[in-house]
Amino acid sequence: MNHTEWEFETLAVRAGHVRTNEGEHSEAIFPTSSFVFSSAAQAAARFGGTEPGNIYARFTNPTVRYFQERLAALEGGESCVATASGMSAILAVMLGLLKVGDHVVCSRAVFGTTTLLLQNIIGKFGVAFSFVELTDMAAWEEALQPNTRLLFVETPANPLTEIVDIRELADLAHRHGSLLVVDNCFCTPALQRPLDLGADIVVHSATKYLDGQGRALGGAVVGDKERVGKDVYGVLRNGGMTMSPFNAWIFLKGLETLSLRMKAHCENALQLAQWLEAHPAIERVHYPGLASHPQHALAQQQQSGFGGIVSFIVKGGQAAAWQVVDATQMLSITANLGDAKTTITHPATTTHGRLTPEQKAQAGIAAGLLRVSVGLESVRDIQRDLARGLDAL
Fold this sequence. Notes:
pyridoxal phosphate binding; Aspartate Aminotransferase, domain 2; Aspartate Aminotransferase, domain 1; lyase; alpha/beta; 393 residues; 7-stranded mixed sheet
């Protein structure tokens, strides 16, 4: 059966795996730095690109290739490049597609490190950046310049789960000769496929939901054969931000249960968000599954689920927020997300802590804001743990 006929759940389990002569059922791990050639001529052909095959594990490894092909199939992309981390995936896109004199428009509602990567590192090499409100389409259009090469968004965004209309933004980008890059970390292809909506490139921190158990670092870029398979791959081959075979194997195992896990995360998150919205100590809850969310209707339209991230503002500012965090006994106090274990963090002093006060204000990072990555425990136990601090307020 051709894998193009397979449903999502089947692709997540079967796509990309080519068994060796040993006949292994689970994907093999190839922990080797290099590969042996049958002759000098074959070595020359492989290095010259006239014969496909493994060369050196920095840029060719069977286990990593299995993961790349599987994720590309899930996202509906032609090509995937796996990287050492989610941030290196974004870096590879910027290095592979930008040059001196180019301009990028980026949403203010992105992971704090993404903002700093663009401003403080990529910006040093003659690339200009404009930051706009994620949901303000007029601001996006106004920010476009003749030299705008890329538009970059997270949707849903970290940590307020704001959502932009991907198809509308992609159409805007293409009318101006630009590309749209979407960080699909919060939804994964199980809930949202940006390429189907017109986006050109998708990036992931595989560390999050693609793994699902907080075991390994990794990233990925998915798109077409020219930009991703050639330009971004060229950065990886020469720059070496390489995913290890062992981590690729972990992510392969994570993908097998992705669909089931995301459904469970969504179910728990919605119940928690509804409970939080009714709590007197909460000023506001941010979750796309709530009717009170500004983009609730859009989320219903372009996502098949609302995700597992719930953010909320505690009355009383940072002191009250920290009190809630410190009162928890089960939740993990960590900035990671997408884990089977529920995690909680205070964005203003962790994930977005290096931003200036002005940048925090523009991104909506309030002093009383908490972000919960809702895990797979009983939602009643998650509520009881948060209630320790919230009820005391």
